[in-house]
Amino acid sequence: MAIIKGIQAGITGTGKYIPERIMTNADFEKITDTTDAWITERTGIKERHFAAADENCCDMAAKAGLAALADAGLSPDDTDAVILSTNSPDSIIPCSAAKVQGMIGASGAGAFDVISGCTGSLTAMLAAISGVSCGLWKNALVIGAEKFHDIIDWDDRSTSVLFGDGAGACVISRSEEGKGRFVSGRIEADGEKHGLITAGLGGKEDKLDMKGQDVFRFVNSKLPPFVEDFCRDSGTAPRDIDFWVIHQANMRITESLFKRLDIPLDRTLPNLDRYGNTSSASLLINLEEAMTAGRVRPGEKTAFVAFGAGMTLGALLYAA
Ligand code: COA
Fold it and tell me: Which of 252, 291, 300 is closest to 269 using CA atoms?
């Protein structure tokens, strides 16, 4: 089951916030036993941005959220729900979405966080689509924001070079006949693999720990059939999708997926080289850049694909 029924839900605005501070691979060479060549060849990453010391997840989320609302031509008051996907919240209690709701002045809107690894923002989008499609909400603001700087284990060269900070956002609203709409969606988890990517609260285990090779193997074996099944259940085929918004984890993962599904690589817009893996912010940053570049075109199909800790997988199909 993948088809979305009910009131049409579409994307009416997108936004992003990228913090100023840049850390290049050359900067990493100075603090870690690594090289620009190794990082580039194994991941496709050249540089990543990190938040300032006094800049938190919610600060970045609020900026991206306001940008998306402005792009949609809406005021914060028009928002029925603020849904924040993050794996690096300012706090667990209260939820960071409530803090963001207050910061942007979306008075009266509901607010909740989604924690689902790098699949979180796609899961948050699915929650927003569900709320709009069943008639509960008119406009839902979905934000993905991460401050990974503080949870990175800086002594672990195999993970520290991969991640970056940032925020992306989109507004999902009731849409009219003939306008863009979400056609189908699916999320899946393999909880037996929950130990592959972990970060706890307090103690040594609060830092990010990842079994990189196992994650790589899991994603490369599970993602292609998951996407193929999803497309089939949505009444289409990977080759018939015009554009792909993909979680930016590793360029080799994107290339391997596209090769397996026989999709030309120019049907996506990678930005991993500039931002690294911004976890659950990455899908929405990628969406904002695709929209700005005019790649989500009327009359065409766009697919969203995400994967991450859990292990979790997710896909959405959008007809613009
Ligand atoms: N610089 C230089 N060498 C490094 C390094 C770094 N930053 N990190 C690891 N290495 C070394 C390892 O120590 C190992 O050395 P050895 O052979 O002497 O033991 C060698 O490089 C190969 O390590 P390996 O772990 O096999 O590399 P890899 O090709 O699997 O690449 C990752 C490592 C992490 C880039 C890769 O496994 C990966 O991208 N996994 C998926 C991670 C991911 O996308 N997670 C997010 C999912 S949402």
Answer: 291
